[in-house]
């Protein structure tokens, strides 16, 4: 198989909702679903590289016998979350062979609900910017995004139905967009980060991946214990959708790929045709300043969270994460505190956006996945919503003429995660209904 041509995707992504329904109706069994998923991993992962290690036979047998709403659902765990039955290496040689004694809380919750944890998925080192070796299933010459590289690619290739990831800048929404799947970054702290390697304690957010929006909503509901699924919206009547305009898409700093600009317009028109009112929302100065403050806050905290690694194992760290930590070590406490004040003002400004609209629609990335594996893409369009803590969902379904996915983000008020998922599902349905060729532009 050429590394410069698309993977022949004869297997569609696995659906959490379909697996759950088929098992409940007796059309299949957890054991059969797990065996089929492992066969896909055996067949495809040698080329894609979504996994860094696989679950033991004992763990697989326990998963096949598990009960709960997620029984039989093949689940991948980003390798910054602790697992009691597999090493957790954080994408770093410093932690080679490191074996935790307990699962991270989110992993334990997945096991309790019956999910079949099939392995640990590839991450950039410490969920930073040094790329993993994972390839994009839509075209092996392109990045799958990061830092949750393996989780997103594993679902896009049909090896997994569900996976967890994390976002400190854009590490859930961006890889979901590049891989053409649903990614959900919940409201800050809705999902627990206990047992997840800390990079930035005020920004790190646990997130989830699945094939479609209904799948990730069901997954999130099962893992969080909150009502996050809802009956499908018949249309968008009564909804006001804000098109969030920033310096990145207007003016001298414009960086949007023409294909992404066209996808944004297509998605907006789809919501408008469904009955939504569209309004332009230029980015307030307070939120522009908050985005600019993200770097100082993140890097200052990362330099402390990884102080031991930075001082004791410098020679074993990747160049990008080391440069980031050294940059953070140079940020003064005064600059960090100023950044936190700016972030607090930004959060208030973010809340005010929803006084005039129900949700925001924005690009998930500047364009499709970049070619080459030396980058994971630019998180600039994602990191503001990580800092403000607003819930976000990447909506899949649109693509370039070459077949590379293009993702759009739905953002809503903090704590309105069910609304975010509901509007995202409506947009996904509208895109699919209007695009017989899976949304190619």
Structural features, described:
The protein has 441 residues and is α/β, with parallel strands linked by helices. 39% of the residues lie in helices and 14% in strands. It has 14 helices and 11 strands. Strands 1-3-2-4-6-5-10-11-9-7-8 form an 11-stranded mixed beta sheet, sandwiched between helices. Helix 8 crosses helix 14, helix 9 (285-305) crosses helix 11 and helix 9 crosses helix 12. The longest helix is centred in the last third of the chain and has 21 residues, at 285-305. The two termini are 27 Å apart. Residues 1-9 have low confidence and may be disordered.
Estimated structural class: alpha/beta
Give the helix level as a range of percent: 25-40%
State Rg: 20 Å
Secondary-structure element series: HHEHEHEHEHEEHEHEHHHHEHEEH
Strand segment tally: 11
Strand order of the largest sheet: 1-3-2-4-6-5-10-11-9-7-8
Q: Helix segment count?
A: 14
Tell me the fraction of residues in β-strands, as a range. Answer: 5-15%
Globular, elongated, flat, extended or rod-shaped: what is the shape? globular
Largest sheet: 11 strands, mixed
Low-confidence stretches: 1-9
Termini separation: 27 Å
What average pLDDT do the residues reach? 95
């Amino acid at each position: 198989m050429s590394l410069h041509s698309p993977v022949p995707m004869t297997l569609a992504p696995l659906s959490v909702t379909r697996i759950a329904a088929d098992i409940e109706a007796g059309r299949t069994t957890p054991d059969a679903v797990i065996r089929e998923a492992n066969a896909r991993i055996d067949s495809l992962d040698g080329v894609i590289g979504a996994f860094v290690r696989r679950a033991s036979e004992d763990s697989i047998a326990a998963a096949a016998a598990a009960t709960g709403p997620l029984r039989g659902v093949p689940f991948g765990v980003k390798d910054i979350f602790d697992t009691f039955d597999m090493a957790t290496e954080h994408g770093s040689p410093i932690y080679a062979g490191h074996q935790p004694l307990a699962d991270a809380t989110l992993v334990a919750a997945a096991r309790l609900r019956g999910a079949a944890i099939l392995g640990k998925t590839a991450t950039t080192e410490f969920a930073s910017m040094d790329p993993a070796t994972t390839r994009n299933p839509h075209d092996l010459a392109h990045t799958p995004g990061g830092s949750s590289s393996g989780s997103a690619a594993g679902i896009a290739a049909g090896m997994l139905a569900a996976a967890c990831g994390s976002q400190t800048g854009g590490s859930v929404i961006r890889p979901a967009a590049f891989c053409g799947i649903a990614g959900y970054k919940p409201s800050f702290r809705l999902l627990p980060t206990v047992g997840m390697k800390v990079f930035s304690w005020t920004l790190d957010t646990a997130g989830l991946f699945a094939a479609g929006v209904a799948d990730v909503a069901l997954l999130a509901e099962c893992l969080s214990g909150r009502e996050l699924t809802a009956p499908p919206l018949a249309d968008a009547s009564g909804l006001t959708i804000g098109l969030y305009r920033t310096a990145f898409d207007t003016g001298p700093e414009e960086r949007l790929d023409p294909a992404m600009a066209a996808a944004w317009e297509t998605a907006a028109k789809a919501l408008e045709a469904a009955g939504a009112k569209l309004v332009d929302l230029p980015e307030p100065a307070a939120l522009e300043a908050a985005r600019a403050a993200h770097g100082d806050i993140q890097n200052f905290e990362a330099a402390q969270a990884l102080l031991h690694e930075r001082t004791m194992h410098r020679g074993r760290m990747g160049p990008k994460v080391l440069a980031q930590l050294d940059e953070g070590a140079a940020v003064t406490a005064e600059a960090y505190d100023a950044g936190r004040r700016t972030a607090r003002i930004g959060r208030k400004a973010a809340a005010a956006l929803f006084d005039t609209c129900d949700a925001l629609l924005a690009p998930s990335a500047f364009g499709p996945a970049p070619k080459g594996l030396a980058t994971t893409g630019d998180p600039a369009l994602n990191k503001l919503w990580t800092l403000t803590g607003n819930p976000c969902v990447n909506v899949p379904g649109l693509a370039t003429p070459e077949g590379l996915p293009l993702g759009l983000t739905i953002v809503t008020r903090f704590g309105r995660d069910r609304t975010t998922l509901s509007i995202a599902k409506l947009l996904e349905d509208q895109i699919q209904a209007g695009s017989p060729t899976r949304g190619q532009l």
